[in-house]
């Protein structure tokens, strides 16, 4: 049903209210929503640390007396940790880099579902291997500290462990829903 607006144009309804379950992406469990919320919260803190570190470096260029060598290290380590911690969130919402060569060719075919299942399984195995390596590195790198702010380097691998475990969980969650459209990264949901 259409309505006329005051300027004489017609208003078309945006979409039907009920989208069939077969056209929806994988539903989010409470655990995945909570995991995503934690990752975003940590990511916001790390992004803030990057901003503070970089702004402090800029300030110290104009006022050398307030210079602190740890500002650059803080920004750099926060950037690395941010990269790791948001891995699972991005994998779960297709915000990571994907090769979509076969998507157009195989769309609507059973091979497309098989391709998505195989790629999700590869992601699970790869992320679990990376999580294991991060776990090993936590112990071996904890004794080493950064030069300026003396943060144990093993702490970076804690962020890697969390991010890769989350990515493995998010990828495994996609497998039963491979025949449905995948969720897309929606920047507006990060607004909080």
Automatic annotation (TrEMBL):
<feature type="transmembrane region" description="Helical">
    <location>
        <begin position="65"/>
        <end position="92"/>
    </location>
</feature>
<feature type="transmembrane region" description="Helical">
    <location>
        <begin position="40"/>
        <end position="59"/>
    </location>
</feature>
<feature type="compositionally biased region" description="Polar residues">
    <location>
        <begin position="1"/>
        <end position="12"/>
    </location>
</feature>
<feature type="transmembrane region" description="Helical">
    <location>
        <begin position="155"/>
        <end position="173"/>
    </location>
</feature>
<keyword id="KW-0997">Cell inner membrane</keyword>
<feature type="region of interest" description="Disordered">
    <location>
        <begin position="1"/>
        <end position="26"/>
    </location>
</feature>
<feature type="domain" description="Tripartite ATP-independent periplasmic transporters DctQ component">
    <location>
        <begin position="50"/>
        <end position="172"/>
    </location>
</feature>
<dbReference type="InterPro" id="IPR055348">
    <property type="entry name" value="DctQ"/>
</dbReference>
<keyword id="KW-0472">Membrane</keyword>
<keyword id="KW-1133">Transmembrane helix</keyword>
<comment type="similarity">
    <text>Belongs to the TRAP transporter small permease family.</text>
</comment>
<keyword id="KW-0813">Transport</keyword>
<dbReference type="Pfam" id="PF04290">
    <property type="entry name" value="DctQ"/>
</dbReference>
<dbReference type="InterPro" id="IPR007387">
    <property type="entry name" value="TRAP_DctQ"/>
</dbReference>
<feature type="transmembrane region" description="Helical">
    <location>
        <begin position="113"/>
        <end position="135"/>
    </location>
</feature>
<protein>
    <submittedName>
        <fullName>TRAP transporter small permease subunit</fullName>
    </submittedName>
</protein>
<keyword id="KW-0812">Transmembrane</keyword>
<keyword id="KW-1003">Cell membrane</keyword>
<dbReference type="GO" id="GO:0005886">
    <property type="term" value="C:plasma membrane"/>
</dbReference>
<dbReference type="GO" id="GO:0015740">
    <property type="term" value="P:C4-dicarboxylate transport"/>
</dbReference>
<dbReference type="GO" id="GO:0022857">
    <property type="term" value="F:transmembrane transporter activity"/>
</dbReference>
């Amino acid at each position: 049903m259409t309505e006329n607006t005051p300027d004489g144009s017609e208003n078309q309804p945006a979409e039907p209210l009920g989208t069939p379950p077969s056209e929806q992406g994988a539903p989010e469990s409470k655990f995945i929503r909570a995991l995503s919320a934690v990752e975003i919260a940590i990511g916001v803190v790390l992004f803030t640390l990057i901003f503070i570190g970089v702004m402090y470096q800029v300030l110290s260029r104009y006022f050398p007396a307030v210079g602190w060598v740890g500002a650059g290290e803080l920004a750099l380590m926060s950037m690395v940790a941010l990269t790791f911690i948001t891995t699972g969130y991005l994998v779960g919402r297709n915000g990571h880099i994907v090769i979509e060569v076969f998507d157009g060719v195989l769309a609507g075919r059973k091979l497309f579902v098989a391709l998505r299942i195989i790629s999700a399984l590869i992601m699970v195995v790869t992320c679990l291997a990376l999580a294991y390596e991060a776990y090993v590195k936590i112990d071996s790198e904890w004794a080493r500290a950064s030069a300026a702010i003396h943060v144990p380097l093993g702490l970076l691998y804690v962020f890697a462990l969390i991010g890769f475990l989350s990515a493995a969980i998010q990828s495994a969650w996609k497998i039963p829903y491979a025949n449905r459209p995948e969720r897309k990264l929606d920047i507006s949901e990060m607004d909080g």
